[in-house]
Fold:
Amino acid sequence: MKVYKFGGASVRSAEGVRNLCDIVRGETGDLFVIVSAMGKTTNALEHVLEQFMAGDREATQQAFAVSETYHREIIAALFDNVPEDASSTHRPFVAPCSLPAVEELFGELKNLLDSCEPKPEEYELWYDRIVSYGELLSTTIISEYLNHCGLLNRWIDMRQCFITDARHRDADIDIERSAPLLKNIVYGECPGQSEIRTRIFIGQGFIGGTPEGEPTTLGREGSDYSAAVAAHILDAESLTIWKDVEGILNADPKIFPDTVYIPELTYLDAIELAYSGAQIIHPKTIKPLQNKHIPLYVRPFGDKTRPGSVIKGEIDHPIDVPILILKHNQVLLSIRPNDFSFVLEDRFAGIFSLLERYNVKINLIQSSAVNLSLCVDRSRHLEEVVNELHRQQYRVVYNSDMELLTIRGYTSELCDKYDRFPGAYLTQKTRKIVRIVRKKV
Ligand code: ASP
Ligand code: MG
Structure:
């Protein structure tokens, strides 16, 4: 079994879906395919949610219509244009824009939006109910299209296979509970399909469900994590993430000059990169793979002859270039007890558990005698955290619009260049890594 994951950018158009179909056709063994929402659908559905939560029916419908039209256009382009080499097993032509399974999803979502009155405190719950439709739609369209092209496959509802906790918008998959469910679907008997064993499975990234059956999402860009957990549970020989880049680079070419491509990384390299904010893979992706020694390939979607990068336990060529990672949307908090008592362990524990409770992610910690500085992800709950700290007699200084630059394997030139930067507020250095919290450039 191999696991493939396709991100939103790779399936943003009919052409992208055809390319996916080509890549899937090239694999002759068992294949589990995880797909994200098409293009910028998750953002678009977040926008639908905002209007819905604000109680603006008309704006909600308009926002929904934008997404609906986008998907319908892709469907029309796909099903109007049957590839010449489609095998004889392909189904009779289905009228464009009306795949019944897709219509059902549109209907369900429309119904939710039209008939429910959300409570403001249920924002996270509604987020997951609504935004999860992005992946349900993309996988349904892709599964239908693959069938249509003779690549018989089975669509899997990951809300029923990945059992998660109820931390909406940032749920964790309970691997132990999910494993028998997923294995049973993939390796068990399937009623009605017994003569032909399905070897291709299509499942949604980014989503799961609570034991009570409420949909959950796993955090933005969480499809990589879904794919890694699927690979772990199915004991896959490898996971391949198909992306719109050559492989893993030492820096984001849109931000830094002179980037180079890195052919091999260890799991440890990768987890550090992801944690520092490299957008290449979701931070939760590595652990499930490392635990079962499953290699992760990051390959260019546009050219399947190119090898891309591999992440695995042992590598032949350690990385010998500095790696630069910029994490956006940061806030620097400086916290000090009003009574000047030293910030000690018991105080730390209270502050950290408060941040944990509000799901605020900490990216850098620095402490002195009476001061604790924390660089955290911007979050809609930050104000509540700061208010609570005030109640607990802390003085809090708050710098928003910050970013966190991490340079791994820095050189003195690089260090000087970025550390002297006038907006640099805080620098932390170890032998290998320098991290700079700076005002957004
Ligand atoms: N569709 C989700 C997002 O855009 C998950 C993913 O793409 O990995 O964040
Ligand atoms: Mg994505």
About this structure: The mean pLDDT is 91. Residues 323-439 form a domain with the VC0802-like fold (CATH 3.30.2130.10). The chain has two domains: 2-236, 323-439. The chain is about 35% helix and 25% strand.
